[in-house]
Amino acid sequence: MAIGGRDVLIVVPCLNEAANLAGLLDHLLADTAVREALIVVADGGSTDASVSIVEAIAAREPRVRLLANPDRIQSAAINLAVARFGGDRRWLARIDAHAGYPPAYVSRLVAAAEATGAVSVVTPMRTVGRGCFQKAAAAAQNSRLGTGGAAHRGGAGGGWVDHGHHALMAIEAFQGAGGYDEGFSHNEDAELDLRLAQGGGRIWMAADLAIDYHPRSDPGSLFRQYLNYGQGRAKTVARHRTPLKIRQLAPLAVAPAVLAAVLAAPLAALTPWALAAALPALAWAALCLAGGALVGWRTREPCAFGSGLAAMIMHLGWSVGYWRWRITGRPPPRRLPFAEVDVAG
Fold first, then answer.
1. What is the dihedral of CA 91, 14, 151, 292, to 10 degrees?
2. Which helix (H) or strand (E) holds 332?
3. Domains and CATH numbers, the chain
4. What is the rounded distance in angstroms from the CA atom of residue 49 to the CA atom of residue 67?
5. Shortest CA distance to 41 belongs to which of 8, 74, 19, 71?
6. pLDDT the model gives residue 268
7. Whole-number Å distance between alpha carbons of 310 and 220
8. What pLDDT does 344 receive?
9. 93 and which of 10, 70, 76, 174 could share a cystine (Cβ 3.0–4.6 Å)?
10. pLDDT at 168 over 60
11. Ordered alpha helix ranges (H), 127-217
12. Between β-strands 8-14 and 91-94, what pairing exists: parallel, antiparallel or unpaired?
């Protein structure tokens, strides 16, 4: 990669990230191999000090810009930034404000893209918790118990993949595929990866550039997060008519099993059939709790013994979200700001 980085656009979607922005922007500005990259913070209406922090940094650092994102969601933030600032730049780097990044992250992403010829470079996610519940959720997300062995979650080696955590894309390929579909508030990354692949694009997993991600800090927000993930996956399946993977099929049974157990509970003392109806949910709970105990024993982290409970919350949220949308939802209209591409469905 030519030293300078004039051809790199870095976009940071933001909503109430005052605790993280200053350190993150300092980290990005310190990457001297892309010292001419433009950094755009697209703010979705923060009510904390996020905007003032970015304005103060932008006042002394012309490479940093603040952009209002009236649609609030991440997909719209990145599309808007590319439309406004992409110009003749070649690479789009997507940075999440609440994650931690290795040194020279962006320049190393560009180097990986140029070395492999990939139109997109993705990275693994290493989940890190602070409080005890976060540590339990992190342990679940870093294991097969919570993610079913997803390549970007399970510590897989580098190589060609069909999906991963979005980090860098060729702007020409991004725009040619239509950009992120703004009808998707979640799963927009996996949905775009399908369109990139349909256009012949290849995605490279840079295993040496894992990022640190902090999970939700309480059960309710973790459940809502995975509820949205499930709904997003259901929309993607409906849009592209693609089959679910085995690791995604297993959680589908969770919501029906839990519903059957809840309905059968009042009759459990009256008929053995009611108890039988509850057995699938009881077996799932037992397997999760046992798996969590194994994760805790392997990691020697006391809070990780609760990873089974965190995994149950994740499984149930994803399953409820998927089935709720499949039963009551409607395929969202395509909102592709850069191109109308031929998408199945």
1. 170
2. none
3. 8-127+149-214 (3.90.550.10)
4. 15
5. 74
6. 60
7. 11
8. 36
9. 10
10. yes
11. 132-141, 144-147, 171-176, 188-198
12. parallel
- Sign of the dihedral through C-alpha 179, 181, 185, 187: negative
How many beta carbons lie within 10 A of that of residue 329, not counting itself? 14
Mean pLDDT of the chain: 90
Whether the CA torsion 210, 148, 237, 323 is positive or negative: it is: negative
Q: How far apart are CA 258 and CA 213, in angstroms?
A: 30
- What is the rounded average pLDDT of the residues 105-132? 94
C-alpha closest to that of 113 among 102, 101, 125, 121: 121
Q: Give residue-wise pLDDT tens across range 248-264.
A: 888 899 999 999 999 88
Q: Helix 307-328 and helix 219-240: axis angle, to 10°?
A: 40
DSSP H/E element including 126: strand 125-127
Q: How far apart are CA 150 and CA 156, in angstroms?
A: 9
Question: How much of the chain exceeds pLDDT 70, in percent?
Answer: 93
Share of the chain above pLDDT 90, in %: 72
The three state secondary structure string of 230-261 is: HHHHHHHHHHHCCCCCHHHHHHHHHHHHHHHH
Instruction: Give SS3 for 311.
Output: helix
Name which of 97, 284, 335, 238 is nearest 230 in CA terms: 238
**Whole-angstrom Cα distance, residue 308 to residue 292?**
4
- Tell me the residue type at 252: L
pTM: 0.88
Token couple for 214: 């902090």
3-state secondary structure of 146: helix
